[in-house]
Prior knowledge:
By secondary structure, the chain is α+β, with helices and mostly antiparallel strands. It has four helices and six strands, in the order αββββββααα. The protein has helices at 12-21, 79-89, 93-102, 107-115, and strands at residues 24-29, 35-38, 42-46, 50-56, 59-65, 68-72. It has a three-stranded antiparallel beta sheet. A three-stranded antiparallel beta sheet has the order 2-3-6, with no helix packed on it. β2 (35-38) and β3 form a beta hairpin.
Amino acid sequence: MFPGIGGRGMNPAKVKQMMKQMGISITDVNDVEQVIIRTADKDIVFNDANVSIMNAQGVDTYQVVGTPEEVARELEIPDDDIRLVAEQTGVTEDQAREALKDAKGDLAEAILALSS
């Protein structure tokens, strides 16, 4: 935080000049349609994002401003895993897929669940 920035009466041109003197530059990214941050279990989606890039001492920092929406990610199960579970247990591929989803992709757990 810079002293005096954000307070009343701070001249935007003065702020820009101070940042330039400190070697900091900010540029906006134009025409942003969507920003997605992916984690292991969810996506954080910004459909109304404004994105700025601040460069300070050669390091770029991205700032995303907008309204985030969290979307749970569905577990992606490889076709080879589905076929393996189906072959090992004698069930259909749809049943194997459901068992793998229930087991969060764990092959052994899915096979055991279908075998009992």
